[in-house]
Specification:
Strand 3, helix 3 and strand 4 form a beta-alpha-beta unit. The longest helix is centred in the last third of the chain and has 12 residues. The model has no long low-confidence stretch (mean pLDDT 93). The protein has 5 helices and 5 strands, in the order βαβαβαβαβα.
């Protein structure tokens, strides 16, 4: 079974770290976007099972993008895990209420993050 995961983060180093750590998972197809516009195009035109979404993007906030994805008319809405350097319990609660499956904090240990992502995305 294959699983398609979209990593949305404007920091190329973060995308590289996540892609490197996640590449060890068999059947995982990794897609990347550095901004919201590219992310929306990918999500509309390709099968996406899960999304790792950074809160701060150059063109749109991750919160706005989360809302767009969750309000999409597509038949299958991907599971979304928010990634943020902000440690704000109110924001975390808000994102979960908007439909995020989890909120993970930066900075992160790549291998601990991998373990958490395996649980949240079930791949």
């Amino acid at each position: 079974m294959s699983f398609s995961l979209l990593i949305i983060d404007d920091d190329e180093d973060i995308r590289l770290i996540l892609s490197s750590v996640l590449s060890s998972i068999d059947g995982l197809n990794i897609l990347e976007a550095g901004d919201g516009a590219v992310a929306q195009e990918i999500e509309q035109n390709q099968r996406v099972d899960g999304i790792i979404l950074d809160y701060q993007l150059p063109d749109i906030s991750g919160e706005e993008l989360l809302t767009i994805f969750k309000n999409s008319l597509s038949s299958q809405t991907p599971d979304i895990v928010m990634l943020s350097a902000r440690d704000d319990k109110d924001l975390t609660r808000k994102w979960l209420d908007l439909g995020a499956k989890a909120v993970l904090k930066k900075p992160f240990n790549p291998f601990e993050l991998l373990t958490q992502l395996r649980v949240h995305f079930e791949f």
